[in-house]
Amino acid sequence: REVIEVTKEMITVLQRRNPAIRPSLAIIQAGEDDGLLEINKKMARRIGLNVTQICLAKECSEIEIVTEVLKLSEDPGVHGLYLHLPQASLTSRVLTALKPEKDVDGLSDLNTGCLIRGDLSAGFVPPVTSAVLEWLSKHHVTLEGKTVLILGGHGTFEVTLRCLIERQGIEVVVSDWTSKNLKSQVMRADAVVVLEAGKKNLPPTWFKPGALVFSCDPTSKTGTLFNTCMHYIIILQVTFRRHNVAQSCGRWLQEQEYQPWSLSSISLQPLTPVPSDIEISRAHTPKPVSQLAKEIGLLPEELEVYGRSKAKVRLSLLDRLHNQPDGKYVLVAGITPTPLGEGKSTVTIGLVQALSAHLKLNSFACLRQPSQGPTFWGESNLLCLGGAAGGGYAQVIPMEEFNLHLTGDIHAITAANNLVAAAIDARILHESTQSDKALYNRLVPSVNGVRRFSPIQISRLCRLGIDKTDPASLTPQEINTFVRLDLDPSKITWHRVLDTNDRFLRKITVGQASTEKGQTRETGFDIAVASEIMAILALADGLEDMKGRLARMVVGTSRSGQPVTAEDLGVSGALAVLMKDAIKPTLMQTLEGTPVFVHAGPFANIAHGNSSVLADKLALKLVGEDGFVVTEAGFGADIGMEKFFNIKCRASGLQPDVVVLVATVRALKMHGGGPNVSAGAPLPREYIDENLSLAAGGCHSNLRKQIQIAHLFGVPVVVAVNVFKTDTQAEVDLVCQIAKECGAFDAVPCHHWAQGGRGCVDLARAVTQATRRPNNFQFLYDLQLPLVDKIRTIAQKVYGAADIELSPDAKAKLDYYNQQGYASLPICMAKTHLSLSHMPEKKGAPTGFILPIRDVRASIGAGFIYPLVGTMSTMPGLPTRPCFYDIDLDPATEEISGLF
């Protein structure tokens, strides 16, 4: 009764914390045992837990037992597992399959080891052992100095029982039924515990007066005294088993709560001169990703491991930590870059290394996945895509895995995108060559004499206003409306994609085979990261949201002027299936062992250029209320940061605490009037020699403007000066001084490339101080403004334009989008990243120009309208000498050479 009351109170406390919780025990037994089931059910009702009984065949095989054990061990609804099986069936393989945290009978080696070591908090005391200890404690005022004989002992029970009894100060003697000294051992014992019955009886005259004699073996028949005691022990075992189940449930519930980090940093020993990125990466061994996951509070069931150093993280984490407050949210943006890039990724990684490894604050980096196109290109004027692992001593490792395939997300996007393209052309062909009746019979076939609409077809009927579910009930007109998408081939906006730079696919003709019956049309390929599906992946806040966005994607227009969606094609469910794993962020780590989420990689000019909403949300929960999540926006603040605020923050509902604006002396000199910089060409002398005048000119123009853009959104700015070896101290000091004069909260030099996190400690301190300032975050425009006014607002307030100029095509498109009900979507401007204006050659902060909008397109699934400013290519080409000339593999070591 006492044990039952304690267990009931435990369950009551658990249910106060989580009213839905109900401890559950699963019993696996060989053959029927209604008596056992009745005892368990009766006890379950008294205590308040669930019992499930799995009855295997009496002569079941080891593999059958293991299969059931594995299934129940992985079931989150089962908190305890009792193997009511013959001793011979409790093989090593069976016990290995049993999760120690559900081993409420204490059979596993881990449980036994914990008990022997004295750690009663980690494992479970076997119910048999608890029952014996309870019996002894209730029948002796003092146990110290007593002697207990354990008879017929074997395996786990004998070991743990002996260990725990001895810890009470009791002498333990272990014997078996064949011992020659059995009589003398029984006569001197204060208690005799029979673990396994023998073939002979113990005469009553052998027992010491007042000795306790009882059996834990239900098959024993050694006398009236044994039978009485045996009954009590069995009931007590069942009671303690229930107690262990409640204890297991409590531990499980505690695991579900937020866990403080126990992050172990990896010490860096930077070399001078700094080796190549790939040499640094290979010189450092990352922690096993399972260890990293445990350190940051992830549960094993939330991890899907890909090899040793990367893993997918399941979205169930968001449900588990739903009530956990978010950490601080930091955005890394930059000034208008040179074609060489200014190091936003290295600053992002250096900052989190400084926060975690040096300031001991929980921090997470969220980065985009790079495209393979620029990886094999070898030039860096598409930095939004390639080489995003950072560099020097501030990078994600292993960098080969980061830059090549990773966990296959881009391949999933490619497959999904091209499935839509295939569905479009197939539908045009079939509609052009079949009657309404033939189309209808094929789209809604009779299967085994039964004809029914699929769920996605019922959705289409509802959108068409046809409230019918019986295929036989549609009228000829309704059949025509249902089967005819009537896509206008000249107004199909959907392209195929490929994650390779291939200029000859920019414009192609499809359908030239004779089997396609003359259905030729012009189309083209984009690079995979420019796909709308990539933008959707980055903005979705869950699987259901992603599925809805995929369904809403507009692929073209019908001849009657109506938009045609992926759901109209019937393909949206299949797209969700292809993308179900890609939606999970990939966990990796920096050189110093700080966690990184790598997820999504949308084109930064045609899409929003930010990593995923889900990666940020997961990281914000994991770091805890006092932690930091650092995410990066593509290109300059006028592109990536503006889209982060106006598009990504609207989709996520998150608000950043501070912007880190990355600047380099090199880029500031260019904006101050310095000569052009080109990838692959030597730097002009102006960028190597000290020139305070050029640096000041860039600060007072481009840097000032980019700080002002951040202030438009009400967010404090910390300027990070990414120091290069050609910079002088006077130049760096000047930039920091002017940045603060221009309104930055602080400005600090950063040496992370050469020193790792230690070189970014000052930036980390400045960021932590900036997050304590009041935040007046606001969006740049109201979504209810007309589309043209939203475009004008961005052009004037962000870029510095005097006004916009719409081409006739752009004006017609805006009218069409207004008519279709898309007017309330945000704007995603597509323009050059090399200038605040639409003219790449215009550096600094040009003003007074007219921004030409040559076309306007829509990504309805992603949820934005994108005006095209100037000429934008969505399929890069290869240069004369791509870097694949230098990339090779050593067949013996499998080591890659020539990659970065």
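Second entry:
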Amino acid sequence: MGATRLVMLFWALSAVDVALAGARPSEVAVGALFTYDSSIGRAAQLAIELAVDDVNAEGTVLSGTKLDMVTQDSKCSGFLGTIQAFQLMEKNVVAVIGPQSSGIGHVISHVVNELHVPLLSFAATDPTLSASEYPYFLRTTISDYFQMNAVASIVDYYQWKRVTAIFVDDDYGRGGVLALGDALAAKRAKISYKAAIPPNSNLDVINDVLFRANMMESRVMVVHANPDTGMRIFSVANKLQMMTSGYVWIVTDWLAAVLGSSASRDIKDMSDIQGLIVLRQHTPESDAKNKFISKWNSLARSRNINSGLNSYGFYAYDTVWTVACAIDQFLNSGQQINFSTDPTLYDSNGSTMHLSTLKLFDGGEQMLRQLLLTNFTGVTGPVQYDSDRNLVRPAYDILNIGGSGSRFIGYWSNHSGLSVAAPEILYQKQPNTSTSPQQLYNVVWPGGSTTTPRGWVFPNNGQPLRVGVPIKSSFKELVSGKGPDNVRGYCIDIFNAAAKLLPYPVTYQFVTIGDGTRNPIYIDIIRRVAANSLDAAVGDFAIVRNGTQLAEYTQPYIESGLVIVAPVKKATRSAWAFLKPFTLEMWCVTGALFILVGIVVWLLEHRINEEFRGPPRRQITTIFWFSFSTMFYSHRQNIVSALGRFVLIIWLFVVLIITSSYTASLTSILTVQQLETGITGLNSLISSSLPIGYQAGKFTKRYLTQNLNIPMSRLVPLNTAQEYADALNRGPKHGGVAAIVDEKPYIDIFLSNYCNFRIVGQQFTREGWGFAFQRDSPLAEDMSTAILQLSESGQLERIHDEWFSRPSCASDDDSEVGETRLGLRSFSGLFLICALICLFALVVFFTRIYWQYKQYSNFEAAGEPSAPDADSVKRQQRLSSLGSFKELIQFVDKKEEEVRRKMKRRPSDKDNQAAGSSYATSVDSA
């Protein structure tokens, strides 16, 4: 109590400066209501007495004012407890400590709400005693809300998914189980069965309740009861063989209170509870706690009390100090303790209830405010309230019953979850429950087993597992049958093989669904599983979104997905088949391009290459021969010019693409089947307005309408493979369909018997087939593990090969099915590039020719002899004639070498001519 005294001293010193409105009372009455003769009451009674003595002896708290504790025995009765609460109110108490029972707490909370008297309970843990409904109720112990979160953490730690809640059917039990359900839901677990035991039940009633609970599949039992009923539960459970290996028992803190209070434990009772996991409120070790324990034990020995101290005694002791500190602050703030008559309470004529004696505490609201501001360190640790009016730092010890006592296996706190480190150490660190490893020490389970129980078995009600099986009129390789005892198929063999690998025996009975003439609706079967009409569904069930919302699926045992199948036909043999790879437009443009390239190359090579010269007939032949021989890379002419070689390289690349495409297209036309409709894949399917077939009863219809937005008017339901073939053969024009959308396994079976159909496009969904079980069923996980074992051992593939023969007439490669004629659009870009290259070469060529022609013309003009004006006129006429188009053509036709030679000879001729003129002049002069 050293820390407590420091806090009290601070409060006392701060109160010196407070101006008191009047004299402090010499005595303040506080009520206490609990059951004296009970495990919790015996510990609380001595603790309250010690606390009152310590408060009155402490000079820094309630200085000059004595704390008077008025106690009443509720005798473990709701009715008597309520009466005792009224009697306490008649004595003008400023607060009431108690009650011990949550049920009584619900009743008298209405009383204290009316009279404004704070009610502080050290044992009423029902979380439904909410502050919003009962503003004057204040819990001075840990709420069961946190205890049930601790239980859920233990369940999640061992990966159990379903528990059976065994509880006393009163406010305390129902409130705790409600909190347990919420806590388990947050861990993706749930209460599978609620075994409610009426209060004060005898052994026969408890036996009936536990017998029904034992019929259920869960073997994780959570017991939330009171000490009297709880110990009888274990006695009956032991007789029903429910304390053996495979069972799990998790017990709330009431059992720890019983064990702590029992100084000399009954050996028989301990034998009934071996292997249990028990929670106990955690109180950190401190000098104040050890001092209190020593004083409590001394007082118990002096009074010959055989009962021991439990954790509720600690909370009862701190509750008295909480009230004392609040009263001290209330008085130090200048408040007066006054009571007034409540006008709503009066005694009717002839009534002997004396309701008028109940007074309204005028300072109740201020007193409640001071209680909520409590902040000191007691024997239970920090005593402080959060915004939800719960004690801060809730924590529990987790014990494992074994031998003649219990063994510590870990802690739970709201700060860090499960751990083996003390909560007060972990509270010094940042909360990180999402990533910090949850840890507990090893547990010895009922029956002495150290292996963690599986936590569930098949219901022990003599009923086999109800397995629904769809019976259809087709695709009998997958599942078929004429009755529950005559079910067979690929899916059934997979299920039977997986069931044999389970680590426990499974009895099941097939329930056939469907008349064999029309397909059942698969989602309706899944709904029957969700509604508990079936325990499982086995067959060709695709794992799709709307199904997973209703049931739990296993690991897929076969891959699946939607594909499109369409009718095809063999290409007709024709003598003109070699023309079919290209369209007429393509042939024309390709031929024109051949001639164009030939002309371009001839122009570029004509002036410098002898192989491209000669008579006109020879040159025309050369153009055609050169251009078409490049198709086979057999042209003999050498290309000399740089521009000609550049054009030829580009053209040979174009020829390579054209010939390769022609070869591939011709091969496809001669060997691959052709589509009868224009549907070549998913895009063409969606964009067209043709009717589409689908398998009735499956998810395909929903996918096509909701995901692909295909109108319902285009969809045609089909049931059998024969209906598939008939609808495809008739086609859209005769009441059939253009294509069928279905899952790949069905189409594989269909195509193995019908050869004139093919899969077009790619598979556009990715699903798998699995077995469906009820939500959170542990069997789904175990069956998934068994399916993986079948896959790893190769047995899954062997079962597949037994039922699915290789298609007898379907091609292994369906990717080439479709239209194979190539049009101009496929090569437009390539042709455009080639044409632009040719144009570029011609522009460069003619630019160069024009420049040469201008140079050549100038040299021709400069080479004419000087003459009179008449001669000048003739020269200009000659130049005009040279510049004509005819002269230009003649110039282009000239050899490059000849032009260059003439242009080089003209300057020398002018020199000779000039020299001759000079010589003549000199002769004349002489």
